[in-house]
Design a protein that fits this description.
Shape: globular
CATH superfamily of the largest domain: von Willebrand factor, type A domain
CATH architecture of the largest domain: 3-Layer(aba) Sandwich
Oligomer: single chain
Helix content: 40-55%
Number of strands: 11
Number of helices: 25
Strand content: 5-15%
Largest sheet: 6 strands, mixed
Radius of gyration: 26 Å
CATH class of the largest domain: Alpha Beta
CATH topology of the largest domain: Rossmann fold
């Protein structure tokens, strides 16, 4: 009997823990390294838990992440709050909802004073505040500190900004401005007091007396309007948003033309299909030039906190030419599709090339097609991984992109793997940053799916004698199908080539594991679609 074949630190099946390593079972039944609570907090804030994952339902995943937030809040409230603010204010996450929920948990289980002090930084508009109140009232009652925090939220902004928000964001999650004002009782005078009276009682008697309340004055006129040209004039005169326009006027081209002139970037991305359908956005038009100029302005993108995934959603939706619900169709304008593609890369900011030989390995196994990143329509971890890879590929002159998964029913042993060929397990894919992103998404969606073996990229590089400085594996970390762990495969690569290769693992779901060994200084775990990730990865690759 060969006892060593049953117990080895150099080659261990992923269904077992590596001897001497502290590992936990992942959701697929394989073993991986547990990430600490601070890394998991970051994953949750950026990726969320909406829709769950392939292996874990939304409820269970949300509860697990919430318990992690609570542990962080109780261990170090300041670090927790600072992390929440950094990700929320910096536009590092595609949605703000996880940050709002996490802040509400800190206000209940941690230092509520710290949480309430940053309320305006995280909840920047009324809908954010409504969401926060819904979250926190599920944990605690309306005490003095919560009343004071909500009152301060309404007393702090400039009156004209608050008036604009009051007409644009009127209710969400069963809450309205009237409800929160009645519960918090903020004390004020002048224009702000007149605004509060309108928000609570509908009193319009003094609205026209204050220039700061022009958004409300214009809104009151617009809701009575039945003529598209008159509505367009009011929109321009009072700088009114789409939310103020009566529904029956939202099919009029002249109305959308007025709205587009000062339309916020987020609203522009969301309404590209509608503006195309009503005939405003068409080839060679001034409106198209306006949209392209806005999408190409990096300062505008940053100020609006436009996340790359928001652009990816807009791109895949708009280029498809039909709504997900199948209720409407439009003829996409090619120049706008190209501008969205360019804006996707621009939204990550400036990323410096490392000059390292880089292998970008995309996990295209079945589990990567389950769930959605931050609940965004059509953006599975599998689709998002391709987009993330292109951001890195666009800056790295020496790179190759491969996709890997294990075919259903296949049995892999690395003795025969290195002699029988691997075309059906790991394949180079011909996608390039020079391609349009929507075409790349279609390519990746067409690759056959199977089981997960994150050791495949390193073993493939060994077999083919490919010189790699940095392996970047984009995965959900639910690896289980291999006969050697990824970190063991990396060590074999280092020993056989003499290259001190590094491994960067880009986690695409908010679970609690990673294939990166936290005790190996040559491995790094980062959160996928964190806008800060490309520069962090570059710094790590360069040391």
């Amino acid at each position: 009997m060969n006892y060593g074949s049953h117990f080895s630190t150099l080659q261990t099946p992923q269904s077992e823990a590596i001897p001497g390593k502290s590992m936990v079972k992942n959701n697929a039944g394989g073993f991986a390294f547990a990430i600490d609570d601070w890394k998991r907090l970051e994953r949750f804030l950026i990726l969320g838990s909406e829709g769950g994952t392939y292996y874990v339902g939304e409820h269970e995943l949300t509860v697990d992440n919430a318990q992690c937030v609570v542990r962080c809040a109780q261990a170090d409230s300041k670090r927790t709050v600072d992390t929440i603010v950094s990700i929320s204010e910096g536009g590092r996450a595609p949605k703000n909802d996880p940050a709002i929920f996490a802040l509400a948990l800190v206000a209940k289980f941690g230092d509520k004073k710290l949480a309430f002090e940053v309320l305006l930084k995280v909840c920047r508009i009324p809908t954010h505040l409504f969401n926060f109140v819904e979250c926190i009232t599920g944990q605690r009652g309306w005490g003095r500190s919560l009343r004071r925090a909500v009152a301060n939220w309404y007393l702090t902004p400039e009156v004209n900004d608050l008036a604009y928000h009051a007409v644009k964001y009127q209710q969400r999650d069963g809450w309205a401005n009237r409800d929160l004002l009645c519960l918090s009782h903020p004390k004020t005078d002048g224009a702000r007091n007149v605004l509060f009276r309108w928000m609570v009682k509908g009193d319009t008697t003094q609205i026209s007396d204050f220039d700061e309340l022009r958004p409300v004055e214009g809104f009151l006129q617009l809701i009575k309007s039945t003529d598209a040209k008159s509505a367009a004039k009011l929109i321009r005169e009072y700088n009114l948003p789409r939310e103020c326009v009566p529904t029956n006027l939202l099919t009029e081209k002249v109305v959308w033309e007025a709205l587009l002139e000062k339309m916020p970037m987020t609203a522009m991305l969301r309404n590209l299909p509608t503006m195309t359908r009503v005939g405003l956005l068409k080839p060679m038009s001034n409106a198209v030039s306006h949209v392209i100029a806005a999408l190409g302005n990096i300062d505008t993108l940053r100020k609006a906190r436009i996340h790359p995934l928001g652009i990816l959603v807009a791109l895949t939706t708009y280029s498809g030419g039909y709504s997900i619900r199948g209720e409407s169709t439009w003829e996409p304008v090619t120049r706008i599709i190209d501008a969205l593609n360019d804006a996707f890369y621009l939204s990550f900011g400036t990323v410096e090339p490392t000059g390292k030989r880089t292998l970008l390995a995309l996990d295209v196994s079945g589990s990567m097609d389950g769930g959605l990143i931050a609940g965004l329509p059509g953006i599975t971890p599998r689709v998002a991984s391709a987009a993330m890879a292109l951001v890195i590929a666009a800056t790295e002159p020496q790179h190759q992109i491969v996709a890997f998964s294990v075919p259903p029913g296949a049995t892999i042993t690395y003795a025969n793997y290195q002699t029988q060929g691997d075309h059906n397990m790991l394949v180079p894919i011909s996608i390039s940053p020079r391609q349009r992103l929507d075409d790349v998404v279609k390519t990746v969606r067409g690759i056959p799916m199977g089981g997960t073996d994150c050791a495949l990229p390193m073993m493939w590089a060994i077999k083919n004698n490919i010189q790699i400085d940095t392996f970047i594996v984009i995965t959900d970390n639910e690896s289980w199908a291999g006969h050697i762990h990824p970190i063991q495969a990396l060590n074999q690569y280092r020993q056989k080539t003499g290259i001190p290769a590094k491994l960067i693992v880009v986690g695409m779901t908010s679970n609690n594991v990673s294939i990166a060994d936290p005790n190996d200084s040559g491995t790094l775990d980062v959160t996928g679609f964190d806008t800060a990730a490309p520069n962090i990865m570059g710094d790590f690759a360069r040391e």
